[in-house]
From TrEMBL:
Pfam families: PTS_EIIA_1 (PF00358). InterPro entries: Dup_hybrid_motif (IPR011055), PTS_EIIA_1_perm (IPR001127), PTS_EIIA_component (IPR050890). The keyword Electron transport does not apply. Residues 29-132 form the PTS EIIA type-1 domain. One of its GO terms (biological process) is phosphoenolpyruvate-dependent sugar phosphotransferase system. It is found in: Cytoplasm. PROSITE patterns: PTS_EIIA_TYPE_1. This is PTS glucose transporter subunit IIA. It comes from Amedibacillus dolichus.
Length: 155
């Protein structure tokens, strides 16, 4: 009975990379902007390190290293680095994790070569998409954030 009176703990989400946090609807890719894959947020990056937005298990590492799936008891999400960057076939991306590995929130999971990717004409906007129907409450919309900084919460 006392569990009914306990306040549910909120899951805090950190930015996967340093840059300007924007609404997912502002992303220049209709699949993300329309939230067809799920709700979330995006960051226009200004550095090369990608960190885990939540603690959990790496449930997917795309062969091209441009996207990662992470899940825990409260959330399931994808960190997708750039738009159409799958076409780079992994060039400019370095992963530090493997599928099945446990990660801590804020842990570096990948590194990207921002200059090389953008020089080839790719938009490097990085999306965090919740694939489990979670809708994050954004705390730092349109603000410059650091990788690992709390930027959203889940009820």
């Amino acid at each position: 009975m006392w569990n009914l009176l306990k306040k549910k703990k909120k899951e805090m989400i950190v930015s996967p990379i340093q840059g300007k946090l924007i609404n997912l609807s502002m992303v220049k890719d209709e699949a993300f902007a329309s939230k067809a894959m799920g709700d979330g947020f995006a960051v226009e990056p200004s550095e090369n390190k990608i960190v885990a937005p939540i603690s959990g298990t790496i449930c997917a590492v795309f062969p091209t290293k441009h996207a990662f799936g992470i899940a825990n008891d409260h959330a399931e999400l994808i960190v997708h680095i750039g738009i159409d960057t799958v076409n780079l076939k992994g060039v400019g991306f370095h992963s530090f994790v493997e599928q099945g590995e446990k990660v801590k929130q804020g842990q570096v999971i990948a590194e990207i070569d921002l200059d090389a990717i953008t020089q080839q004409g790719y938009d490097i906007t990085t999306m965090v998409v919740f694939t489990d129907n979670n809708v994050p409450k954004l705390l730092k919309l349109n603000e410059f954030v650091c990788g690992g900084e709390e930027v959203a919460e889940l009820e």
